[in-house]
Amino acid sequence: MKTIYIWITIFLIVTAGLYYYFTIDSQRVVKMDDLGKKDVELKEDYNSTVSRYHDFDLRLIGHGKHLQSMQTTLDAHRKAYSEKMDSMNLVFEEVKYLIEDLESRFTKKINRVSDDVRNLSDSFDSFKRSSKRDVREIQHDISSLQDEMKEVTELMPIIKQKLKLDKEEKK
After folding, report:
1. What was the pLDDT predicted at 41?
2. To which H or E segment does residue 60 belong?
């Protein structure tokens, strides 16, 4: 009886092994095949993602280099702009100085011309007063000469008569 138990046990183990081999192991093999296929798909997806990530990384590096070159160009433009602005500021300062100098000179000249005009006006007023005084004196002289002429013309007949008388007396 012991052998029967051993044979039954062996039969059950062999049956379980066959059942496991044909049923469970085939499911495991199918699952493993599915896992292998999914693993291949995942590897392809992973490789595609890694490739895209690498491409994206290269694009970022390219953009970084492009941005760096643009930053360098921008810095050069800023430096050139700063230099131009400094030179323009110097030119503006020079122009401002020249304008202030011209303004000072013109102000002095205008003041001199104003003084000359004032002096000329004073001289003209003085000349005008002296001319009026001279004209009055001349008019006074003319008036007195006219009065004297009148007297002389009035005395003329008397003088003529006296002269006639004197002539007659001398004869």
Report:
1. 83
2. helix 25-170
